[in-house]
Each structure stands twice: as structure tokens, then as C-alpha cells.
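Suppose you are handed a protein chain with no further information: no name, no annotation, nothing but its sequence. What can you learn? This example shows the usual starting point.
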Amino acid sequence: MRTSLSGKRIAILVEDNFRDPDVTVALRRLRAAGASVTLVGSGMRHAYRGERGTTVVADCSVAGTRPDDLDAVLIPAGEALDRLRESPEVISLLQGAHAAGKVVAAFSQAVQLLVEGNMLTGLARQAASLDTGVLSSSLSRRLGLVADGNVIAARDASSPEFYVALRQRLKQTEGPGSARAL
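A reasonable first move is to predict its three-dimensional structure. Written in C-alpha cells, the prediction is:
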């Protein structure tokens, strides 16, 4: 991945039982591309353990994170999803970021948070209209990626197409219409 995300501020949500590669691979690739990546915890604790045992330390809690401070928010898959969806602060951050035109990306079944938060439009809403499991299943088996507006739903963090779509969406948010020049 070429260095093209310099100056971009990207948050990755973390909670116990996150899908390890969705956090570790995304963290490594985004930082290698020059992005400033912040691990945002749900606020329950400071360190979070993934499904496969990887432990990460949150840089801050969701309660102290504002959409205006970010260019994108990534939601990992895994059992952590149940705890993330129960947090009003998480939903508020995601909805605020989406409403402000920030990129909101979800891996695999994490797209459920986008459905529940009414953040899907167009193609993404059509793909998820019958059942969020259909979209997750499609991402896993066939599509690999759905990108529509400022929303990206990807199979997982190892998908090269995800980083291409992320770069494109972040580039679209630059310029005179953005909240700040990046």
C-alpha cells in the first residue's frame, strides 16, 4: 500500500473479542500508509483482547471521541459487535461521523451496526434490505466489498480492495467542501 494517507485521522473501534485481523492488519496497513490511527475503546476498560488472544491498548474511549476529530471510523467484526451495539456512545459516534460525511467502514458482520444505525443508503441498503446476514454472507463469499457514498463494507481487513476504496473515499472528502483542508 503506497503512502497516501498522510494526515488522515482514522479510528478503529475496539472491544473485547474483536476479530483480531480486522484490528491488527488494518492498524499495520493504515499506519504504514501514513495515517494517524487511534484505537477507540468502548470505555469499559483500557486494554482489549481479541478472539484469538491479541491484546491492544485503547488510545482513548468513545466518550471522548468526536466525529469532527476523525476522517474515518472502522468497525471490526467479531463477538465485540454485541458490546459495541449496546453502547449509545458508539452508535452516536458512528451516526455523527456518517452525518458529517466521514468514511464509516465495517468488516463482515459489523455491517449490522450500520443497518441498525440507519446509515446505509443506495446500493448498500439494497444489499442489506432482506437480512444483514445476507450482506455479511455476500461479502464473505462473493462481493468482498460494497462501497456506497461514505460507507464501505468489506469482507475483512486483508482485502486490498478495501484500502483502495478507503483511499478513494478519503480523497473525495478533501477540498473546499470538507470541514478542514487535509
